[in-house]
Automatic annotation (TrEMBL):
<dbReference type="InterPro" id="IPR001412">
    <property type="entry name" value="aa-tRNA-synth_I_CS"/>
</dbReference>
<dbReference type="InterPro" id="IPR024088">
    <property type="entry name" value="Tyr-tRNA-ligase_bac-type"/>
</dbReference>
<keyword id="KW-0547">Nucleotide-binding</keyword>
<comment type="function">
    <text>Catalyzes the attachment of tyrosine to tRNA(Tyr) in a two-step reaction: tyrosine is first activated by ATP to form Tyr-AMP and then transferred to the acceptor end of tRNA(Tyr).</text>
</comment>
<keyword id="KW-0436">Ligase</keyword>
<dbReference type="InterPro" id="IPR002307">
    <property type="entry name" value="Tyr-tRNA-ligase"/>
</dbReference>
<dbReference type="GO" id="GO:0005524">
    <property type="term" value="F:ATP binding"/>
</dbReference>
<feature type="short sequence motif" description="'KMSKS' region">
    <location>
        <begin position="231"/>
        <end position="235"/>
    </location>
</feature>
<feature type="binding site">
    <location>
        <position position="173"/>
    </location>
    <ligand>
        <name>L-tyrosine</name>
    </ligand>
</feature>
<dbReference type="GO" id="GO:0006437">
    <property type="term" value="P:tyrosyl-tRNA aminoacylation"/>
</dbReference>
<dbReference type="InterPro" id="IPR002305">
    <property type="entry name" value="aa-tRNA-synth_Ic"/>
</dbReference>
<dbReference type="GO" id="GO:0005829">
    <property type="term" value="C:cytosol"/>
</dbReference>
<keyword id="KW-0067">ATP-binding</keyword>
<dbReference type="InterPro" id="IPR054608">
    <property type="entry name" value="SYY-like_C"/>
</dbReference>
<comment type="subunit">
    <text>Homodimer.</text>
</comment>
<dbReference type="Pfam" id="PF00579">
    <property type="entry name" value="tRNA-synt_1b"/>
</dbReference>
<feature type="short sequence motif" description="'HIGH' region">
    <location>
        <begin position="39"/>
        <end position="48"/>
    </location>
</feature>
Length: 421
RNA sequence: GGAGGGAUACCAAAGUGGCCAACUGGGGCGGACUGUAAAUCCGCUGGCAUCGCCUUCGUAGGUUCGAAUCCUACUCCCUCCA
């Protein structure tokens, strides 16, 4: 399989070093490649999936993938794409995040396969023991300040200011590439479009360290944008995380299910392993029967399964069905706790309390006034029954399984109240 | 250093003694329509409550029966001249 053609068909190639040379090299046999992930948060988000899955595409095509977590670079801070200096994170925090990222990456990249297992590395391992003198003599000598200043990540910060720490970032990342070439014969680095400067700095370093006799390659992937020009991956409530505790599988599934018709095909190409042919069929489906949203459903299922597993996917579908197409009343108490574990909930002790107070307590309304407004607007449904009387008491609402009140506000916001004696 | 202009609710922007909880636009939220869409239309958008009450218009005081509106001081921002 021609991996480069597949990536091109999917719109996944943005910038590259000599593409013909890379194609030639790939034709000669499996290549070792790497992509780095810096621990800047306790979880990856949906944007990281683009590069992580591309790494997997290479692995599936028989190439040797290395996933690097930036235990060292995460302590320094990449200036790329940032308009201001980062605040340094605590060492312990970064260590913790490294572990979390490692765990997440193993969901998409196969480190245990018997034929072609991928490798996980942490650049802290070879950076921690680097002493200043050898770093400056052996590595630093290969970097020209003039060149470094010209890089977008640095030049864009010269007016606003940049610390020496962040300025040096690209040297560390370049050293990673060099180190991986030495250790594992790694010849290709993948990254997001903002990584171009760091990647070329790396290919340059490897070449210089070998007296211009070695060529390694770099590839960047495009930033995924929506048809309205904005960045993909942000919901009203913030980033879409891969950590189930930060973005529930249900919310994750819903996010993808709700993508615009104009974006869904592009996203299928980027985020799924469906063949281009299969995706083109779905494109037809969008054109002829958009209301069925087959493409969106496919996208949501494929990616949720990939990130959270089959079981979580089924749960997300089940919740979706009962919330949007089924009857909540049909659910058992156990199913309710399961279905609404991702939804804001609260426990009410006063069965004689008013619905208005309950709405405020569960967070469905910011104030009693707003709660009353929602009720009189017909925005509030409790256990499938629309409530329109402001003075409604909890006791009148017939809890499911004797204790659950499933409150819906508007069309798709849910809250769960458990009433205890 | 000198001269002038401004600070209003999430943002923008009216209001210049009582009719102001404060025009209007955007955003947000809710409703109708729909495909859990887009577009469109309608409503709400300080808090508590049974008429009504309480807290808000940069900060702190003052004048007045009554102030976002007038006066004083302070803080911050902008423009122009040096």
């Amino acid at each position: 399989m021609d991996i480069l053609k597949d990536l091109q068909d999917r719109g996944l190639i943005y910038q590259s070093t000599d593409l013909d040379l890379l194609r030639k090299r790939l034709g000669e046999g499996p290549i070792t490649l790497y992509c780095g992930f810096d621990p800047t948060a306790d979880s990856l988000h949906i944007g990281h999936l683009v590069t992580a899955l591309t790494l997997r595409r290479f692995q599936l095509a028989g190439h040797h993938a290395i996933a690097l977590v930036g235990g060292a670079t995460g302590l320094i801070g990449d200036p790329s794409g940032r308009t201001s200096e980062r605040t340094l994170n605590q060492k312990e925090t970064v260590e913790e995040w490294v572990e979390k990222l490692k765990k997440q990456l193993s969901r998409f990249i196969d480190f245990d396969s018997s034929q072609n297992p991928a490798r996980m590395v942490n650049n802290y391992d070879w950076t921690k023991s680097l002493d200043v003198i050898s770093f400056l003599r052996d590595v630093g000598k290969n970097f020209s300040i003039n060149n470094m200043l010209a890089k977008e990540s640095v030049s864009s910060r010269l007016d606003k200011g940049i610390s020496f720490t962040e300025f040096s970032y690209m040297i560390l990342q370049s050293y990673d590439f060099f180190k991986l070439y030495e250790l594992y014969g790694c010849e290709l680095q993948l990254g997001g479009s903002d990584q171009w400067g760091n990647i070329t700095a790396g290919t340059d370093l490897v070449r210089k360290m070998h007296n211009e006799k070695v060529t390694v390659h770099g590839l960047t992937l495009p930033l995924i944008t929506k048809s309205d020009g904005t960045k993909f991956g942000k919901s009203a409530s913030g980033a879409i995380w891969l950590d189930a505790d930060k973005t529930s599988p249900y919310a994750f599934y819903q996010f993808l299910l709700n993508v615009d018709d104009n974006d869904v095909i592009k996203l299928l190409k980027v985020f799924t392993f469906l063949t281009i042919e299969e995706i083109l069929e779905l494109e037809q489906e969008v054109a002829t029967a958009p209301e069925k949203r087959v493409a969106q459903r496919t996208l949501a299922e494929e990616v949720t399964r990939l990130v959270h597993g089959e079981e979580a996917l089924q749960r997300a579908i089940h919740i979706t069905n009962s919330l949007f197409h089924g009857e909540i009343r049909n659910l058992t108490g156990q199913e309710i706790t399961e279905a609404f574990q991702d939804v804001p909930s609260t426990t009410l002790s006063d069965q004689q309390g008013s619905l208005v107070d309950a709405l405020v307590q569960v967070g469905a309304a910011k104030s009693k006034r707003e709660a009353r407004e929602f009720i009189s607007n017909g925005a509030i449904t409790v256990n499938d029954v629309k409530v329109t009387h402001i003075a409604t008491k909890l006791a009148e609402l017939a809890p499911l399984d004797g204790k659950y009140l499933v409150i819906r506000r508007g069309k798709k916001k849910y809250y769960l109240c458990e009433v205890v004696a």
